[in-house]
Design brief:
about 35% helix; single chain; globular; alpha/beta; about 250 residues; eight-stranded parallel β-sheet; binds 1,3-dihydroxyacetonephosphate
């Protein structure tokens, strides 16, 4: 397998618990010689200098497309540079649908961070009413989220995160994920992650789907012991026959 495993903390964890989390994960990756890519996106207030494993990447959940200036409440690259951050999530559904970022805002942000060589995890996904209209509508909706986005950018990872599956406890089915990922992979060469109520117990099945290069996990990744187990599953080549100790 050797899959990408990413944790989006969203508005969770403090500076103290983030540092504990990152230290624990680094120690684990060092001890187990983990070679697959692992990402952690802590809240902005917890950014700091961390001594991390070479395959662990700390990113920011959001930033504004400026170096600095008068943009109250936002941070720019001057603030990210202070911590050596070169990875950003763009287009997350909570920013599109809760905060109200438009595709135009998102494309501007994408192109700014692309011009600076950032690793971009670019999120796409359809809301429930679009899914219910069928596959053509779903793909049409997702493809519109590629407007203004250079899909050939070499530092790009894409995450398919259906809005109806995020934070709801209802993960997409294996068939849903397989269908959408197959269609998306015809259009993109970037690694493609799945996100949306991924749980530890179901992780291996998701990672074994064709065209799934990894996962972007919210809720189920916030516990460091569970996240370690996720990294373990993602680091193996082939399937794991042992039983993973998981509650959900
Ligand atoms: P949940 O795993 O909590 O559904 O969140 C997924 C997500 O939005 C990751 O970016």
């Amino acid at each position: 397998m050797k899959k990408i495993i990413a944790s989006n903390f969203k508005t969770n964890h403090t500076r103290k618990s983030t540092r504990e989390f990152i230290d624990t994960i680094t120690q684990y990756m060092d001890d187990e010689s983990i070679k697959n890519d692992v990402y952690i996106f802590p809240p902005t207030t917890a950014l700091d200098q961390f001594n991390i494993n070479e395959n662990l990447n700390i990113g920011v959940q959001n930033a504004y497309n400026v170096k600095n200036g008068s943009f109250t409440g936002e941070i720019g690259t001057e603030q990210l540079d202070e911590f050596g951050i070169k990875t950003i999530l763009i287009g997350h559904s909570e920013r599109r649908h809760v905060i109200g970022e438009s595709q135009k805002d998102i494309a501007l942000k994408y192109n700014y961070f692309k011009s600076l060589g950032y690793k971009i995890i670019y999120c796409v996904g359809e809301p429930l009413e679009v899914k219910e209209e069928g596959l053509t509508s779903t793909l049409g909706y997702i493809f519109e989220q590629f407007d203004g986005i250079d899909l050939d950018y070499e530092n790009l990872v894409i995450a398919y995160e259906p809005v109806w599956a995020i934070g709801t406890g209802i993960s997409a089915t294996i068939e849903d994920i397989a269908t959408i990922h197959k269609k998306l992979k015809k259009k993109i060469t970037a690694p493609l992650l799945y996100g949306g109520s991924v749980k530890l117990c179901g992780l291996q099945d998701i990672l074994e789907i064709d065209n799934v290069d990894g996962v972007l996990v919210g809720t189920a990744s916030w516990d460091k012991d569970d996240f370690k187990k996720m990294i373990y599953i993602g680091s193996k080549t082939g399937s794991i026959n042992e039983k993973i100790d998981c509650k959900n």
